[in-house]
Structures are given as structure tokens and as C-alpha cells.
Amino acid sequence: MRKNSEPREVRARWDFPLSYGIRLRATCLIFALSGIASLASAQTTPTALATRGTKADTSVRAESLGICRFAEVKAQANRSADSTLPSYIEILNAYASDRGAALSESLAFLLADALLPLPPKPAPGSSFPPQPAFEFKEESSDSKIFYFPEKAISLCDLCIAGFYSLAGETVEAAIYLIEKLEKKVSYLGSYTGTIDTLEYFPGPLRGALLERFAKPALQVFDVIGPPNKTYKVAPEDRGAFQVEDRIFIYKNGNYRIQYSESDTSERSILFGAPSDKRNTFVYNTIQIKPDSGLDDKGSAVPKPSANEKGAREQGAILAEAARQVAWESSKHELASSAFSRSLSRLVVSVPVTALALGGFFVGYEAFTRSALDVGGLALRAAPAILSLGLSIGFAIDTGIRIAGLARASF
């Protein structure tokens, strides 16, 4: 071959461009791989830093939480097993077919009133109260709740949605939590009640919901008392924080609720939890009743004046009179209703008895003429005797009901 027949110097000049090209390609490949590796490390650095828990990432961002109106379904089953939970798509379909009744928004507003307020954020430059784990988000300035879960999930990290069914006066509801990340649905609880007791919704679920979303608070107390009073928790030792009439406890201990009973007197109520409940979430209400007798120091509460006492006695007398009137009215209505039913039965039975007796007499006349045998006469006599007996019984019952109505009227 020509290439082998050439001198070594010539062959070296031929081999140099080939080896140089190979080295150039290898160098470019190395640079490309190093660039990809650096890019991947730049993307994973924040996660690694967050995992290590550096000082810059110690303040965890509060997850946003939205509440959606409830969707009405035909039959409500309170389901808690993961295998029977509705999927995210099933929830969206239920909301799409919902008519948007007034009860669906009422349940959502009642749930929001029970859950809110959540633990607050610390003021700028302050470390107390601790950073909350959840932050409530509204759909807009005009609407506290979301109309569709899809919009709530697009704006919030978590969304509370629910189904309800209405059978007569009975309301059954199930509450679910939807996570934005994987559209995961979890079960929060169920409620069964009536329209008349709807104000107590979500009932026993209030404590469980606060335990889930009131972190990092250890205890939550709702102060219930007379209106137009200002309550203040004390001492302010970085263990408790108050928002409206809700108190968040971050450190176990004894606390006082201070309020004014009048313009000149101030009262306080001692409350708290023992240290053995340190790892157990506690939700409770503090009921403040006026004129409860003694305050926590044992001081006597001023007694009501003579006018106040007379007004209370008069109110008690009127309440008792109203109860008696209601009782008497109820007795009269029951007696009147019973008399009406008895009289109606008597009125209906009289024509039937007359027809049956007429048929019997016609048959008896035919029997005397030998045109009807004994069996035919018996067939005509049986309904006549039965209807006559019923009419006599109804007449006696009507007389008894008249006497009962007379006793209830006088």
C-alpha cells in the first residue's frame, strides 16, 4: 500500500490530524458532561440545604389553606377507609353537577367560623408567636370561601371540601382535605344533625380540625361570654397569644382571662393545663357567665339591685305563665284532634250501616216469601251486624271524646 510505503515522517503527518480530532472530541464531551453535572448540582442545592436545616431555612413557609363550599349528593356515606375515599376527579364531578343550594354555602361558612382564626404570624422583627404551620386564604375580598375546589387548589396548598345530603330534616356531611401536590384526598370527619341544630356544625369535629390546623399551638381555648366585653389573657410571658376571642397556648402553665364586669370592677378567671398534657393537644371553651358568684380570688360579686331582682322575678313568672298557657293549649288541641277523628269515623260509618241494614231487610222480606234461603239471608245479615256494631262503637267513642274536650276547655 502507498501509505505503508511512505516514510515515517510522512505517515506521522497523516496521523496527526486524526489523533488531534479524537482528542478534541473527547475534550468537548468532558466539558459537556461537567456542565450537566454542575447544572444538576445547582438545581439540587436548595433541597440539600433545606434537608440540612441551615439557618436560612429554619423558618418554614406556612401552607395556605382554603375552604370550599359543600356539594350536595344523593346518598351520603361517611367513609374513612382509603379504599372508599372519593378521588379528586370524583369530587370535581360532584361539584360540577351540584345545583349550588344555599345549604352548601352555609355549611362552608359555619366550618370557616369554627376553624378561624388560625394561629397568627409573628410581627416583623419578633419571634413570638411562632411561625404558624397554616395560613387561611380567601377566594377574594368579597368571598371568604371558594366555589369550586379546582380554583382553591390552584391558589392554595390545601383545600377543605365536603359532601352533604339532606333527607327530610336530617343533614349528613363528610369533610375531606385535598392536597395540591398530588391531588391527594384524605378524610377529616363526618357530621350528622338536623336543620334546627345546624348552628352547632361541625360539632365534635371542631377540636379535631383545630388539632390538625392550629399548629404549633399546644392548646386552643374559645372564650364564650356576654357580648360587648373585652377579654385579655395574662400574663404575657410568651406562652399565650390571643386573637379576638380565641386563645392559643404555646407553653403549658397557668393563665388568667381578665375582663371588666362593670365600669368599676375587674374580674379574672384562672385556667390552664397540667404539664402531663404537654404532648396532647387540648381544645376547650371557657364559659363566662355574669353574676357567677365568686371570682378566682374568692371575692363576692356585687348582688343585683332590688329593681333587677324584681325584673328577674317578673320574668320568671311570665315564663312560667307562658309554659302553663302552652301546656293548656296543647291539651285542648290534643282533645279537639281526638274528637274530630272520632266524629269523622262515626259520620263515615252511618251511611255504610244504613245500606247494610237496608240490604238485610230486603233479604228478610224475600226470605219470608220463600224467595231466599237461609244462606242468602245470613250473607245479608253478617255485614249489617258488623257495620251496626262499628257504628255503635264509634258513637260511644265520640261521646267519650266530647267529654274529654269539655274537660280540656274548662
Search tags:
alpha/beta, four-stranded mixed beta sheet, 410 residues, elongated, single chain
Helical percentage:
40-55%
Give the structural class. alpha/beta
Question: Major beta sheet, specifics?
Answer: 5 strands, mixed
* Low-confidence regions: 1-20, 39-58, 292-309
Strand order of the largest sheet: 2-1-3-4-5
Chain-averaged pLDDT: 75
Q: Strand-and-helix sequence, N→C?
A: HHEHHEHEEEHEEEEEEEHH
Number of strands: 12
Q: So what's the overall shape?
A: elongated
Q: Using only CA atoms, what is the Rg?
A: 41 Å
Q: Would you summarize the structure shown here?
A:
The chain has 410 residues and is an alpha/beta fold.
Tell me the layout of helices and strands.
Layout: H1 2-5, H2 8-52, E1 63-72, H3 88-97, H4 102-115, E2 134-136, H5 149-155, E3 158-167, E4 170-179, E5 185-194, H6 205-213, E6 219-224, E7 232-234, E8 240-243, E9 246-249, E10 254-260, E11 266-272, E12 282-287, H7 306-368, H8 374-409
Parallel strand pairs: 1-2, 1-3, 6-12
Antiparallel strand pairs: 3-4, 4-5, 6-9, 7-10, 8-9, 10-11
Please give a structural write-up.
With 410 residues, the protein is α/β, with parallel strands linked by helices. It contains 8 helices and 12 strands. The protein has a 5-stranded mixed β-sheet with strand order 2-1-3-4-5. Strand 4 and strand 5 (185-194) form a beta hairpin. The longest helix has 63 residues, at 306-368. The radius of gyration is 41 Å and the shape is elongated.
